[in-house]
Design a protein that fits this description.
alpha/beta; Udp-n-acetylmuramoylalanyl-d-glutamate--2,6- Diaminopimelate Ligase, Chain: A, domain 1; 5-stranded mixed β-sheet; 11 strands; elongated
Length: 255
Amino acid sequence: MKRDELTAFLDDYLRLREFADDASNNGLQVAASGEVTRVVAGVDGCMALFEAARQEKADLVLVHHGISWGAEPRRMTGIPGARIGMLFRNDISLYAAHLPLDAHPVVGNNAQLADMMRLQERQSCACYHGTDIGFAGALPEAMTAAELAAMLDSQFTWTKTDTRVYNGDRRVNRVAVISGGGGELCFEAAAEQGCEAVVTGEFTHQMYHEMKESNVAVIVLGHYVSETVGVRAVLALLKEKYGIDGVFVDLPTGL
């Protein structure tokens, strides 16, 4: 199908206009091929992913972290120049969705993680730049944080996980989830909503005492792992809606 028809659908479906304050320049970032016959999806817009797209004979790459942020790149030299040149030489367009793909209620990273845990009675949780991007909800049945982490781990069949758990013995029923580096946003909100655990992508030094003082368990999936689910869901959507073939390329960073 026509590239512009597909990207217009994605712009509307992912509600890009609601995220004008996002640091990412969401949407079509490189317009090379005018047609889309095959899509490669990945978390990060990087040379390894673009090379995989070339090998897959894809004409569109879909990513969560694109290559255009704010006013950058200002010069088409070095790494930015090499990436953009590679895409144009191989007639591969690039589409990025950052916060829109965290917040979406169906294909978003947090919605997909919530689905994996079968969270019920979902509410918005964690506000970033005026937009709610996380969810809180109830598990079908209570379990320990360590058991919940193991259940999540077993579902990431497409990538390697290295999940960490804090307060793993704590029995949890209500859980807050926020992917990537947004975990520090939701400790207070999670506690206010009666959550006993937070599932997130990153856990940093400054978050440790917030975790202790809010008395929640924390399940840390890794930034990369927690954001593989959204692009995979969009890939499945494009296959179902338009019959477009595609493949997810796993390029884990271990972070």
